[in-house]
Write a structure and sequence with these properties.
Blueprint (H helix, E strand, L loop, with lengths): L1 H32 L3 H4 L15 H8 L2 H32 L5 H10 L9 H10 L7 H4 L7 H11 L4 H9 L4 H12 L1 H17 L2 H6 L8 H11 L6 H32 L5
Helix pairs in contact: 1-14, 3-14, 4-8, 4-11, 9-10, 11-14, 13-14
């Protein structure tokens, strides 16, 4: 009995230690938001700033068009999430429920595209967008999401495969069409998978740095991730670390909020999507 208690104590101690290791940088980031630049380089580290500086948020928004960065990121992220859900759900339904003989072949072809690095197609895609006069607009970051994503199609299709075919047959007997099956049966029963895809898409689009850096050039079109780097470049010789920390904290707040309130559906969607192939 004592041995079990000892192992339990060691187990909880290890969990607390690992939690502190992961949460330590976040605590330091929050602390940096309320520091001066001089306080950032003091040793030992001041976890609780003394004195507290409350004006970093105001200075940041006065220095950079942060509202424009946040607006651009929200527009791109929300529309990208909608586009991904719309396109991937339709394609996944086709792969899960159509009776075509070539269905599995084309599904394998779709999965094979996951092995192609995005950098391989970057130049041709950039040329296409340039010919369409989409450079320095959010369109190159939004329109492709309405054309599907192989990984998310796979994830949703795997979840659709766990839904019994008897529900489809009952809907057809009642006079329902394929659209009825999708809208009334598949989508309501696949909420965990759809929420999982939404989280993946939202986080990926919100934190994306590479694509906005390539397609967006003007300050008023920049997203938050690129804007933070632009802020660092403006002070290359004398980086204002508290302002960078403030901008970084703003950028992670939506992600923290979403993961906190969607964790249950996120875990359920990931687990159930791999039950049946």
């Amino acid at each position: 009995m004592k041995t079990n208690k000892m192992f339990a104590a060691i187990h909880y101690f290890a969990l607390v230690l690992v939690a502190l290791i992961f949460i330590g940088p976040l605590i330091f980031l929050i602390s940096a938001v309320f520091k001066t630049n001089e306080q950032m380089f003091r040793f030992p580290i001041e976890w609780i700033p003394n004195p507290v500086k409350w004006t970093n948020f105001q200075e940041l928004f006065d220095l950079m068009p942060m509202w424009a960065f946040i607006r651009n990121s929200l527009v791109i992220t929300v529309l990208s999430t909608i586009g991904t859900l719309f396109s991937c759900t339709l394609v996944a339904f086709a792969f899960a429920r159509t009776k075509a003989r070539s269905r599995n072949f084309w599904f394998i072809v779709l999965l094979a595209t996951l092995m192609i690095p995005s950098q391989v197609t970057q130049i041709p895609v950039f040329i296409i967008f340039r010919e369409l006069n989409w450079i320095d607009t959010p369109l190159p970051l939004i329109i492709p999401t309405f054309l599907g994503n192989a990984f998310y199609i796979f994830l949703i299709r795997q979840f659709f495969m766990t839904i019994p075919n008897e529900l489809d047959e009952a809907t057809v007997i009642d006079g329902g069409s394929k659209w009825t099956i999708l809208i009334r049966i598949m989508i309501p029963l696949s909420i965990p998978a759809l929420i999982t895809v939404s989280i993946f898409t939202f986080v990926g689009s919100w934190t994306d740095f590479y694509s906005p850096l390539i397609y967006l050039s003007s300050l008023e079109q920049m997203t938050l991730s690129v804007g933070i780097t632009f802020l660092q470049g403006q002070h290359a010789t004398n980086v204002n670390v508290p302002l960078l920390a403030t901008a970084s904290l703003i950028s992670i707040l939506p992600i923290a909020f979403i993961y906190t309130f969607s964790q249950k559906y996120f875990v359920e969607g990931v687990v159930l999507s791999g039950i049946k192939g």
